[in-house]
Amino acid sequence: MTFRVAGLLCTALLVVLVPPSWSQSQGNGALTLPRALQKAASASPRLAAADRTIAMSDGRREQANVLPNPTVGFEVDNFAMSQIGAVGAVGAVGAVETTLQLSQLIELGGKRDARVQAALGDYDTARLEREATRLELLSETTIAFVEALSAQRRIQILDRQAAVLEKLVPLMQRRVEAGASSPAEVSRTQAAVGMARLERERARLAFAVARRELATLMGMDKPDFTAVSGDFGRIARPAPLDSAIKAIEDNPQLMRWTAVRARRDAELISARLKAVPDVTASLAWRYYGQTGDNAVRFGASLPIPVLDRNRGGIREAQEAAQRTEAEKAINRLTLIAVVGKAHDSANGALLQVDLLRRTILPTARATLTTIEAGYGQGRFTLLEILDAYRTVADAELMEHDALASFHTSVATIEGLIGSPMQLARAR
Fold first, then answer.
1. Measured between alpha carbons, how far is 130 from 3 in angstroms, rounded to an integer?
2. CATH number assigned to the domain comprising residue 180
3. Over the stretch 9-33, which tens digit does the pLDDT of each residue have?
4. Could you give the CA distance from residue 24 to residue 8 in angstroms, rounded to a whole number?
5. How far is CA 253 from its chain centroid?
């Protein structure tokens, strides 16, 4: 588990989330997924904040290796005042002794090494958390891109459906003029067209919202693109769930717990070493004012560890170290639950798409063609042709929703496992 591995995960995710069919622009000014991911990775304030956290941890690591500052002291002994004579004159009594002392705290038991190791663990944790944030950002950007592409494609589907219904209006009017239909059929057809247009406007609003959310992830105040480009019909069959769960072990969210454990183990060592007394060594120069002599003094002092042996701090550090495995297990189970849910959702969406494309859509379109041909001959009613149109429209939107669910699930899985999925072109 190295930082190089974590970096490769991010690179792999960029490759995974950008299949060739999603990289081709379908129009001038259309935003592609590679461009969206690139802008999100370069302009996101979340990554900038994570970089600052790493720099802060590096500062703590540097500071942890610094020795304590020496202490300088100055003392004057045998200095007193007394009154001489009735006039209250002041004079010195005794011989003044002046001392200049330099003291240095000497840490024993490897306290500084333990402190440095704890800071290193904190630094490694910050780096892995930054990689986890990057993976999460790329996955969120991909999901937002899928939502925008989904809303845009939904508008196109509804535009086509509305255009088909609008062609019925002149036919209805001709039938009314010929006395073959009542004017109510024209009104009913116009109402169906109006409902299709209403759904289209709702889809346009959803697209505007999706564009703004995608722009926010890309670090922009407002979108600078009017459309998104990608092959929404592309499908991929996910790898078996067991392999996806195994790949989760390389997710930086889990890898960071190794660094967290190293930091907490070092903090436990520091807590135990706190009971080891440190020596304060001193070197002093003394001047005797009475004789004019100079002298050098050496000294050492250390606390007696009788009242405080840091037992409470040691226990706290022990519990924190032992808690690491439980926290990692919680994190792992959470990731497995997310991957499992997304995996089931992707497979379920694939089944829906397969069923819709193999049976439901072809049957509904064939039925519509038959009814359209027979309607002009008076063999079918308006309700039957509108029902056929609605069946085709509902099936097309169900296929669209299944594709959107599939791509969202795929982005979620790839964002957690950081590895490509086996691609299978839609049939």
1. 11
2. 1.20.1600.10
3. 444 444 444 444 454 444 447 899 9
4. 24
5. 10
